[in-house]
Design brief:
The protein has about 425 residues and is of the alpha+beta class. Helix content is about 40%, strand content about 20%. The strands form five sheets. It has an eight-stranded mixed β-sheet with strand order 1-11-12-13-16-10-9-4. The longest helix has about 30 residues. It binds one RNA strand of 93 nucleotides through helix 3 and helix 4.
Amino acid sequence: MIDLKAARADPDAFRSALVRKGDEAARLFDELMAADAHWLELIPQVDTLRGRTKLKGKPSEDELEELRRVKVELKQLEDALTEAERERQALLDRVPNPPDVSAPDGFTEDDAVEIRRVGEPSSFDFPVSDHVDLAQAYGWIDLERGARVSGSRFVYRIGDVALLELALYRFALDRLVQKGFVPVLPPVLVREEAMYGTGFFPTDEVNIYAVERDGLFLVGTSEVSLAALHMGEILEDVPLRYAGLSTCFRREAGAAGKDTRGMFRVHQFDKVEMFVFTLAETSRDEHERLLEIEEELVQELELPYRVVNVAAGDLGASATKKYDIEAWFPGQERWREITSTSNTTDFQARRLEIRHRRSDGRLEHVHTLNGTAVTARAMIALMENFQDDGGSISVPGALHEFGAPERLGRVQSTA
RNA sequence: GGAGGGAUGACCGAGUGGCCGAAGGUGCUCGCCUGCUAAGCGAGUAGGGGCUGUUGAGGCUCCUCGAGGGUUCAAAUCCCUCUCCCUCCGCCA
């Protein structure tokens, strides 16, 4: 949630920033300011009245009578205050984090600004296949059985592709640990507080699977369980850098009919995620650093890619700024997102009550950032970019030591 | 699933109706001392809201001892509900 005091001090700045996330955001902010004004009107009244109920020692008969009168009045005001607080909180829960000035204007994927391109789209002197076709001959990706067992957008990865995918995760984890990240295998079922705290509730609730019977929710990313790892805590040592590996679950509620082919967009996938707790003054640098790491990984995987700065209106509720890396997918003949890194500043930390003590003793909310290291999408990109005309796939050297076969499929005999 | 115990400040831990926002310890901050990344001595140290004020300050006040409700003039302390944690048994990867 946003810093209410800061918003009061400069509502115009907040509003004009929030407008870039959409009219709805600005409208919610206006309502929030009105609800807050109402609350501010009530609180001193309640305070004063409460003060009059404080007595030391045993009260006299006269004082008792006076107390009873005050309490009747107080009850009404307190009820009004509770209601005002409820209204304000409901709005506070929905107002998104204002975008950073460096996030470009716009509201859609197409409004993202390309920052740079590394490598050229792969060219082939034979008709290219997408990952579905490539997997077909060897049964590497079983979509039909996935659908039969779990429904559409669920897949089995089988054989060499399973090994390749695991190698990818192990590779990313290894590189991150080298860079000082602490490896974590987090829970994937979390409580409501974790979903709320990371900003997925209430805004993005439709995309979350719920296990109603137990009041638990399946994480759409380990960002949730990693952020919540320190919920309610006062951190001694920042920055803290974690590398989480987990399965992710997404309902893809708004994505009907979109990316339905293959395993590009599925309900369940695996991801190595970076998550950082840091200080306000270093979060921008930390964000650039996360992007740098993501690029290093993609470069080691030898994938052609571009980096885009996502438009303000296309950011989630908690992000102020987001970089996506889009790899070239020959099967789709376009750049598609394979990683994403966001700076959520103090938005999540405020909801999760994660703070840090300054040397002068002052407590301050930390900043949190997240970034994808690798997901199964990177594997699809590998399959499509490194195919040969016989339908086999060469695997980048970086993955060999992590158990990936050097080549998927049989090499065509040149008879 | 069954039985029992517990939830207090950054951490540990006292506290069974007003003298408690809370002993003591640890940690942390500052100072002193000490021939030195130790020990000792002294002082300070909960969070949040509102008003006022300052701009290397503070003052007044309200809320908070897991959460919510209740009893009472008065609750960390009594009652109810919920949540969570722990121990033992059962079950189980």
